[in-house]
Amino acid sequence: MSEAMSRTPSRIIPVDEEIFVSTDVEADGPIPGPHSMLSFASAAYTADKELIGTFSANLECLPDAKGHPLTMKWWKTEPEAWAACRVDPEDPAKALKAYVKWVEKLPGKPVFVAYPAGFDFTFMFWYMMRFVGRCPFSWSALDIKTLAFAMTGMPYRKCIKPRLPQVWLDPLPHTHVALDDALEQGALFCNMLAELRDQQKTLSELPGWRGAGLTANANAPVFGSAAAAALAEAADAESPDTGPGKDSTAHG
């Protein structure tokens, strides 16, 4: 049975402020369709790390789908997590409809966040489009691993949690239970975002820095060029129903 929790934010959140929805998926194979999403959970954070809601659900397996042999072999090494994701599994259509409604009731603009987004968003997008017909995150997902690559300068493939600065890592459990992992990676993202904001503030104080005054939710491009402005306008044309604007060359 799905479980949703919402908290009243400690401040009024503007409608254009981004809310970061950290999401974790547990599955029995690498792709949806041939394999099933067993459970998923999201933890919605403000940029200043306030948790304003969670949603979690265990799902019934898809008809005619089956577990991938390598994935099922891995699950045998995690019996507690396996048992947790098989408690009271729910019809995916029912769970995903409730989830989309939960996301759409969050304040601000929801942004899907995962580590790695390529896996989790693939499952969540497929399931939302299959069972609900829409995705409240539009066509995009924010990948924490890519953010780590940009912030640390490490090779992308080496941007794994044990190599990240320890100051980014809160003492939260990583159990392969979807809600635990969504909370953990959401806190990680917020810690990274806080450091990034500090870096941006430092840069903005440099003479001639053209990004000075840019805020977390500003629409103005950093470098102020006409081309960048046009790109920003095209990005704003993207919607959950239509996907990228007609002139976009790539999703996201």
List keywords for this structure.
15% strand; RNaseH_sf; six-stranded mixed sheet; exonuclease activity; nucleic acid binding; Nucleotidyltransferase, domain 5; alpha/beta; disordered C terminus; nuclease; 7 helices; globular; 6 strands; 252 residues
Order of helices and strands: EEEEHHHEHEHHH
Q: Give Rg in angstroms.
A: 19 Å
Strand order of the largest sheet: 1-4-3-2-5-6
Beta strand count: 6
**Low-confidence residue ranges:** 216-232, 244-252
| Coarse morphology | globular
Please count the helical segments: 7
Query: How large is the share of residues in beta strands?
Result: 15-25%
In this structure, how is the largest beta sheet organized? 6 strands, mixed
CATH class of the largest domain: Alpha Beta
- What is the CATH topology of the largest domain? Nucleotidyltransferase, domain 5
CATH homologous superfamily of the largest domain? Ribonuclease H-like superfamily/Ribonuclease H
Oligomeric state of the chains in view: single chain
Q: What value does the average pLDDT take?
A: 87
The CATH architecture category of the largest domain equals 2-Layer Sandwich
Distance between the termini: 32 Å
